[in-house]
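The records we work with from here on pair a chain with its fold. These numbers are not coordinates but entries in a learned vocabulary of local backbone shapes. To see the layout at work, look at the sequence and tokens printed below.
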Amino acid sequence: MSNLYPLDVLFTQAINGLAGHVALLDVLMIWTSKIGVPVLVLTVAAQWWRRADRFHMRHVLVVSGLSFLLGLGLNQLILLLVNRVRPYDVGVSHLLIGPSADPSFPSDHATATIAIAAAFFVHRAWRPAAGYFAAALLIMLSRVYIGTHYVSDVLGGALTGAAAAVLVRNLYREGTLADRFLTRLL
């Protein structure tokens, strides 16, 4: 265990310790955790038909999808190297939902949501980026609140998502033949 583990446990328990005291907050956090990622993906997809700056925005949408997929793919590689036990399995947190079968680090929810937000950010789509970052932070908080992740799990996932967005930004360029083909669909 690292020297930071006690600090990780402290922050995780501080957030998860709020669970179980206010039923409405519990329901909101469970709901956010369960449907937050699909809702974000739907809001991204819905922008495909946006009229303002159509082809640039479509490029950003393609990049956000690629970042999402690459981030989750990177997580699968990390899971081969890191097999971290969930905090509820070692008595660090109280679980509000059913247990998960996969390891705790990194958080797929954090990776997916930050990949989307970071893709918008690195393409200077400031307003949607701000909204997606706010939603990502709420989803990340919900994962710790409901007891399924340590704080470092969501921070690690956020780092993976941001790295994926930067990598895709550098590899998939706007205006290329592939980009023009994809952004002109529908």
